[in-house]
């Protein structure tokens, strides 16, 4: 079902390009590059579903899919030194050059795989995509409506809006069928395509720091999963919770991920309520991001 959602998404943004962009549009190159990267990742996700690609290969796939976006990136590679650190550095701006491009490539790898590894229960993959995409839309609208934001930044956030609206639409459609009890499975096709779509808007929309804050649960899940991902601790193909047939509830297994951590901390529960808890945690983290941005505005940069 993830393939259907991805194809519908691609058709929508291709049609959007036809009606709202002209050959002279300044963002046309970036838009086509985003389309190419998302399409490439959709194909690689489908290949993974069919061939069951090993994890060590999976980690490399987004690196190739992100190449069109990285090559088309026309923004600055200069970062603004946070105000509290400027006295130590002695300057306000720092040009990272190729290091910034490497950072963007790693961001694409992380976003794509992080959605894929925070999974295993009905509704979680599509649900977290909806929450993060909606948070991005709210952030875009806030920046576009801000009087203190220049026109170039507003255009970057408008570009993000173009790509996030159809993502929310197809993810909600998929979630309706993937919600517990699920009648379809999303597969790696959806998680890879959705993760790349989120990464693309963060890179080309120039708000990668905010995007990472929206991905706080995925960051926690990745850090907690590192011993298994590096094979320090045995890692099965699917790190699922245990099912108690007598009570009908899920219990935390020995696998190291956020799903099992929630079950061990908050106790056994049904798959339905476990998904709700995890998605509420995602909403809280996104809310925390907005609050944090408001509190440090003017002080951090």
Task: Give an overview in words.
With 301 residues, the protein is mainly alpha-helical. The mean pLDDT is 88. It has helices at 2-20, 28-51, 55-58, 61-65, 67-72, 83-89, 98-117, 124-144, 151-178, 187-204, 208-214, 216-229, 258-266, 271-296; strands at residues 78-80, 93-95, 242-244, 249-251. It is globular. Strands 1-2 form a two-stranded antiparallel ribbon. The chain has 14 helices and 4 strands.
Rg over alpha carbons: 20 Å
Side-by-side strand order of the widest sheet: 1-2
The strand count comes to 4
Number of helices: 14
Sequence stretches where pLDDT stays below 50 over 5 or more residues: none
Q: Provide the succession of SSEs.
A: HHHHHEHEHHHHHHEEHH
Taking all residues together, what is the mean pLDDT?
88
Class computed from helices, strands and strand pairing? mainly alpha
Q: Which descriptors apply to this entry?
A:
301 residues, mainly alpha, two-stranded antiparallel sheet, 14 helices, 4 strands, 4% strand
Give the topology.
Elements: H1 2-20, H2 28-51, H3 55-58, H4 61-65, H5 67-72, E1 78-80, H6 83-89, E2 93-95, H7 98-117, H8 124-144, H9 151-178, H10 187-204, H11 208-214, H12 216-229, E3 242-244, E4 249-251, H13 258-266, H14 271-296
Antiparallel strand pairs: 1-2, 3-4
Helix pairs in contact: 1-2, 1-9, 1-10, 2-10, 7-10, 7-12, 8-9, 8-10, 8-14, 9-10, 10-11
Structure, briefly:
This protein is mainly α and 301 residues long. The chain has helices at residues 2-20, 28-51, 55-58, 61-65, 67-72, 83-89, 98-117, 124-144, 151-178, 187-204, 208-214, 216-229, 258-266, 271-296, and strands at residues 78-80, 93-95, 242-244, 249-251.
